[in-house]
């Protein structure tokens, strides 16, 4: 028997999930051909009746919401080179059962998973569709044995970031190809992996580094395609309250980095590098907005990634990690006045292979902030533990998490 609560979940997710529909689908009426042979080679087709009979839908990609085909798929023909993942909940929600299938065809009512017959509400088609099919679905997950460790109870304020529910564990946010934003928690923590919402592909920059409005909860900044910067106040459970417009014109900035308290006034600040290569500090006002910006300096056009990684050299000041266009990694010690001291080389090369770098604070539980990195085309996440040394160095990496290669992690 199908779970009765699926109807409520389906209704709650339909509006947001529709924005993530990336498939081009066409209903094809039955003509001379019948059964599975109606499906064009190189396509995925689903049918309203067993054995490829009834109405047919040609599917070109993942579908978070099946619209009029919701709860109508009885059989399928997969003549692509990709796996397909069928799910009985909208949005590829991992809380409900799913199964993956490879090239070929089949009828659900005659398969090993008859519970999918006329019960499919979303599907994914692509090279990674089976990688997270069923239990984890579309978000980043921690590797067993390499999960975050609890932080020291007395961790100071400048080190308390990256934890969205105040349980002393670092947490992940990840955005997938559908524009869904997910929160991932360690299995030992009180948090639950959850879907934050859909439509996040409208954002060109996402940044977080602790509390920006004085309520001791992790917040988020997002810049949309129109150049508007938005503040999302955290609720303390991995989700956000009503967003607040910070201001427009932020498309002039090549990169943004939430970096904590850089000015020494106890309020978290933001860094931004513009198209001319000038780096600016935007002092936070503890209400989610900023005061008049201050120029840090020029020459930053040589940097293609900025990370507010926390106090990397144990001097109780927020620091910056930056990657240059040659693939070298640099440590910039904060001076407590919104700028930085003499930089140190902490990565001699090869860092351009990573899609993104991110700081979640102390992940290993030793009281020192760490760095995570994700390489394109790889389904693993790397952890570089911080040493806390004066030069802000990093230890050898280890595999930290698993995720589809197309996912953005921060």
UniProtKB/TrEMBL annotation:
Keywords: Signal. InterPro entries: FG-GAP (IPR013517), Integrin_alpha_N (IPR028994). The keyword Amino-acid biosynthesis does not apply. It comes from the Bacteria. The keyword Nucleotide-binding does not apply. Residues 1-32 form the signal peptide. PANTHER family: PROPROTEIN CONVERTASE P. This is FG-GAP-like repeat-containing protein. It comes from Streptomyces yaanensis.
